[in-house]
From TrEMBL:
Biological source species: Crinalium epipsammum PCC 9333
Gene Ontology terms: biological process: ubiquinone biosynthetic process
Any Pfam family: Coq4
Highest taxon above the source species: Bacteria
Protein's name according to its UniProt entry: Ubiquinone biosynthesis protein
InterPro entries attached to this UniProt entry: Coq4 (IPR007715)
Length: 219
């Protein structure tokens, strides 16, 4: 492939990323179609490989890529019968209260497919463990947490960028609130142990406080 061709490919990729972010700015919050297009645009092979390499420096994360833990079928009604202080109850209550169903990851044979699927199906558990709400500031806080814990996480950084651009364009008054949420999520992630690769379904009956303490997460 010629140098000119490589430059053209890079330029096309950059244009696609910018267009996807602009589309996200114009879309309603929670537009999963726009989010999927953004993910496809920003997740290049090079940065994903760097992310996987970074994660594999931690034994828990490396083992996850080898064993590929699955969350399995989640019975929210059954989990909702657990004691109210448990992780399982907190997760089920969060899902039921927000009328959500557990996200299903598309698991395949590659490390990339596992990475994407594992993050997808455990996303709402990360909400619970970090204490990040599902409102816009809670999402920004969790996005910053992802950026700090996942090296070269272009997708989560793009989502943060989208939210900051929305503040610039539509409501500058929320900028301080957004920056506070970003800072809190970033600092929380820096002091916390990795959440990636945890076999969460073995912890349903464990108290949420105990889970957070074991991960050095203060909320």
């Amino acid at each position: 492939m010629s140098m000119q061709t490589l430059e053209n490919v890079a330029q096309q990729w950059q244009t696609s990323v910018v267009e996807s972010i602009i589309n996200m700015v114009n879309a309603e919050d929670g537009d999963f179609g726009a989010i999927a297009k953004l993910s496809q645009a920003v997740n290049d092979v090079s940065s994903i490989n760097k992310m996987i390499e970074f994660l594999c420096n931690h034994p828990q994360c490396k083992r996850a890529f080898e064993e590929r833990p699955r969350l399995g079928n989640v019975d929210l009604q059954l989990l909702h019968q657990l004691p109210e202080n448990t992780l399982g109850y907190a997760y089920a209550n969060h899902m039921i209260k927000n009328n959500l169903t557990p996200l299903q990851g598309n698991f395949g044979d590659s490390n990339y497919q596992f990475l994407a699927a594992h993050l997808t199906e455990t996303h709402d558990i990360w909400h619970i463990v970090t204490g990040c709400d599902t409102n816009i500031t809670g999402e920004i806080k969790l996005e910053a947490f992802y950026v700090a814990q996942l090296y070269a996480s272009r997708f989560w950084l793009a989502l943060l960028t989208k939210n900051l651009l929305k503040a610039v364009v539509f409501d500058i008054e929320v900028s301080s609130k957004y920056m506070d949420a970003l800072t809190e999520g970033w600092l929380m992630a820096k002091q916390a142990k990795p959440l990636f690769g945890i076999q969460w379904n073995t912890l349903w009956e464990t108290s949420l406080e105990e889970v957070r303490n074991s991960l050095t997460i203060s909320n």
